[in-house]
Design a protein that fits this description.
Layout (H helix, E strand, L loop, with lengths): L1 H11 L23 E5 L5 E6 L4 E4 L2 H17 L3 H15 L1
Antiparallel strand pairs: 1-2, 2-3
């Protein structure tokens, strides 16, 4: 666990990344129940890929992609800032050593 937390801190230091931790208190209000990848292509087209244990689904229809983007932005707004997220991870890492 300590190595994973250390890797997250190093990841957050990369210039092209943003790391935010969503607070546990979001509970039932969490935006996603399954892994979702939101993609923006070079032509600015937006796609969503959702995966379950049984299948993966690529969605191109913006009527279905837009609600996922909205949910992601709401989650991002409630998540800790990158600095606060890294501080939290460092505190957790101290407890695993």
């Amino acid at each position: 666990m300590a190595a994973q937390l250390e890797w997250l801190v190093a990841f957050a230091e990369l210039p092209s990344t943003v790391l935010q931790v969503a607070p546990y208190e979001l509970g039932e209000r969490r935006a996603f129940d399954l892994p979702v990848h939101l993609l923006t292509l070079p032509d600015r087209a937006q796609l969503a890929y959702a995966e379950s244990a049984q299948q993966g689904r690529l969605e191109r229809d913006m009527r279905l992609v837009q609600p996922l983007l909205t949910a992601y932005h709401q989650l991002q707004a409630e998540a800790l800032s990158q600095a606060a997220s890294v501080d939290m991870i460092k505190q957790l890492r101290k407890g695993t050593q």
